[in-house]
Amino acid sequence: MKNDKRTIFGWAMYDWANSAYITIFGAVIGAFFTGTIMPDDTYWGLSGESLFSILVGIGSILLMLAMPVLGAMADYASAKRMYLRNFAFLGAAFVLITPFVPDGQVPLFLAVVLIGQFGFVAANVFYDGFLPEIATDDTIDKVSSKGFALGYLGGGLYLVFALILISLGGDEAEGGLTESLAARISIFGSGLWWIGFSLFSLARLPADGAPPDRAMTFGDYVSIGFGRTMSTVRKLRTFPQLLLFVVAFIVYNSGTGTVIAVSGPYAEDTLDLALETIALAFLIVQFIAFFGALMFGRISDRIGPKRSVMVTLYIWVGIAFLAFFIPKGSDAGFLLLAAIVGFVLGGVQALSRSLYGTMIPEEASAEFFGFFSVFSKLSGIGPLVFGAISAATGSGRAAILSVAAFFVVGLVLLARVDVDEARRSRERWSFTGAEAEVE
Length: 439
Description:
Helices cover 78% and strands 3% of the residues.
């Protein structure tokens, strides 16, 4: 099934499927929680912003612990498509439930959102795990870029619909569509979008392989998944080039994650920009990232994925300094910055994923992409550093320069990665039952 156009398009369409939820989670669900679900300014002595941040943090910890084990279970059972389907439908189902949570039901809302987020991230592990299975080393960069590109396009289109709907919301006397109801409809629609396009994608993905010969209980799968994960972790130290890439990714992805996480607060607090400008910048990032992901896929064909990622990191350093020098109240400056971010965001994400995919054993791709999910969560140190510097200096401008440091260090580490050696070393892995063996 490698390099089959129908399979690749079906795989990429899953990124389109879940992208509506991604954009709604970032642009609507958090604000809906603080503005509608929260009965007062505080709950359990915490603000809505703090509660929602804690929710995301708890979810990240649970996912860090669970993802490699779930991936190993799926690899052993040859059931990546089944796991993708089950977790995608679990996440989407709880997204559909989310808008029906009554106002004031804070614990219920947080629980529903947490399960939806768990389903989303878990499904992505198995989605990413298909990448080495459907593409070869010479096509994997384009395939990965196509997935991200369709995701940005789909998420952007759905966000346009959601923002138009929410902008029409007003006083109930004006027509019955309140802003709260518009937000609920937008959240519900993202769940329908996720399910509908997931069905299209799943129908085109490779079928699962034969199950294990002996009858297996759920406890057996958990035991094998955990055992394989621990065995793999112990043996990773014998693969220095793969580990070096992972460290480089954690560092420069910390910078990327910081830009995504703090751009809104930075624009509002430091640059004193209006919400409309920030929302427009968000849309610009989504749509330009579509073209950026495709373009960097083509650039990778000429200069290779490692050099292409390094090009994006040079640009990311420039972005950090540009953000430092943008004058207060400069809408044009911030929108220009958003356009540049969109240009490199799709490239660095897509090529990092595909480059990693060429360094790992295909028969354990879901397990290794489970680790990749953990590496992504470890990159959360970037926003913490930004917050600490901002608090210490009282200035977001001083803190934004810390982002440049992440990109510079990540660039230096990535330059030292021997991609060819990392790719050759994947042949040394073999997996039997609960053990990962190294030749």
